[in-house]
Design a protein that fits this description.
- This protein is mainly alpha-helical and about 260 residues long.
- It is built from nine helices and no strands.
- The two termini are about 25 Å apart.
């Protein structure tokens, strides 16, 4: 791999990117484990359940919008790594803005696939790892859903930084594909099948380690987990890795603008 272009002032390094991706795996695994404490709780997602003045959506939409609004006033979305699910009409930050290093091309601001992440989470992922049923804990359920959504969004949109560091290391390979707007070549440049398999195995192992039911004595609970490790592997293989790649490509297509 060629030496990256020099940009010592912004602090973006290959090692930093790798460490962050690995650490974010922990956040995703723990967030799914916490959500799995509750059954599906379908009223949380039924717009006809919660008649809240000024809100026409479901309880989970209401909680996400209200939480994002509060977090926006505290400066959460001043951080370029954070992406709101409902960016329309978010209030401004009321706290002094931290000066985050400018490591990305300005085109990064336009890349937000949270609508796709939202749909993936509720229609595809959630039914795989929660049990059917209703225990009435709808607000807590929605709060745990938000934890999952934010962890997934942060990880997937981190693809912008992954793309930037790859571009810096292999600029001579990426530039022709970007100028030609050649998505297929970009996909090939971004894909390392052995690395992707290693990631899927690692998150499955983390699900085994973090989510194992622990009881004293030999009581037959060997191999029982709070979230099936195979679901974590599938989450990364079917959605996290492909969606991250979509983010990388959208970012790279405008990297030379």
């Amino acid at each position: 791999m060629a030496k990256a272009e020099s940009n010592d002032n912004d602090g973006l390094t290959l090692e930093l990117v790798r460490e962050s991706l690995i650490r974010q795996e922990d956040s995703i695994v723990f967030s799914l484990i916490e959500r799995a404490r509750f059954p599906f709780n379908s009223p949380t997602y039924d717009p006809s359940y919660a008649s809240i003045h000024g809100s026409s959506g479901s309880l989970v939409e209401f909680i996400v919008k209200q939480t994002e609004a509060i977090q926006a006033t505290a400066g959460r979305y001043e951080n370029p790594e954070e992406h709101p699910f409902f960016p329309e009409n978010l209030p401004p930050s009321l706290v002094p803005c931290h000066k985050y290093p400018e490591v990305l091309h300005p085109a990064a601001m336009s890349v937000n696939i949270n609508k796709i992440i939202w749909d993936m989470y509720f229609t595809k992922l959630l039914p795989l790892f929660v049990t059917p049923g209703d225990d009435g804990n709808y607000a807590s359920t929605a709060a745990r859903d938000l934890d999952c959504l934010q962890a997934l969004s942060r990880r997937i949109h981190y693809g912008k930084r992954v793309a930037e560091i790859k571009f810096r290391y292999e600029r001579k390979d990426y530039e022709p594909a970007i100028r030609a707007q050649d998505r297929e070549t970009l996909v090939n440049l971004l894909t390392f099948a052995d690395v992707e398999e290693a990631v899927k195995k690692r998150v499955a192992k983390k699900a085994m380690t973090f989510g194992k039911e622990v009881k004293l004595g030999d009581d037959g609970n060997e191999g029982k987990y709070k979230v099936d490790p195979a679901i974590l592997s599938r989450l990364y293989g079917d959605w996290v890795i492909p969606l991250t790649k979509d983010v990388e490509i959208e970012y790279l297509l405008h990297r030379l603008d």
